[in-house]
Specification:
Layout: H1 2-23, H2 29-51, H3 62-88, H4 91-98, H5 100-113, H6 119-135
Helix pairs in contact: 2-3, 5-6
Length: 136
């Protein structure tokens, strides 16, 4: 089931870039990011209540809040930078560079989460890096 959601994520991420590029025309990229973030916030809370996720509110720990908060800050900075890059660059170049995050995530997951680094992962990350170099 994870693959289904991962593919949907890729489809929506692709649409995000295209729709954002059109929506950024003539406005400040930080304003665009704030509008996008507001929509994401509303959709997220709507989904929480639709699926009953609010039941877990009392289960939140200090650790959950700290790391989810830090993740939110990283997301915010990522979106601000991404929208600025989209505004001044070509989507066909910005989007692949943004996917460099996959390679960085693999490296960080090995360092901080002690996930195994397999030959398959190394080859895949290398191919992603090679593809990135070709695209930019």
């Amino acid at each position: 089931m994870w693959l289904f959601y991962a593919v949907l994520s890729a489809v929506f991420a692709s649409l995000t870039a295209i729709l954002a590029k059109v929506g950024l025309e003539g406005i400040d990229s930080t304003l665009a990011t704030a509008i996008r973030t507001g929509v994401v916030l509303l959709l997220s809370w709507l989904m929480v209540f639709l699926v009953g996720g609010q039941r877990d509110l009392p289960l939140l720990t200090k650790n959950n809040l700290i790391f989810l908060g830090l993740s939110g800050l990283a997301t915010g900075f990522s979106w601000l930078c991404y929208y600025r890059a989209l505004q001044i660059g070509r989507v066909s170049q910005v989007a692949p560079v943004d996917k460099l995050s996959v390679i960085l995530t693999i490296a960080l997951s090995v360092i901080f989460l002690h996930e195994p680094l397999t030959a398959k992962t190394i080859i895949g990350a290398g191919l992603l890096a090679a593809g990135l170099l070709v695209l930019i």
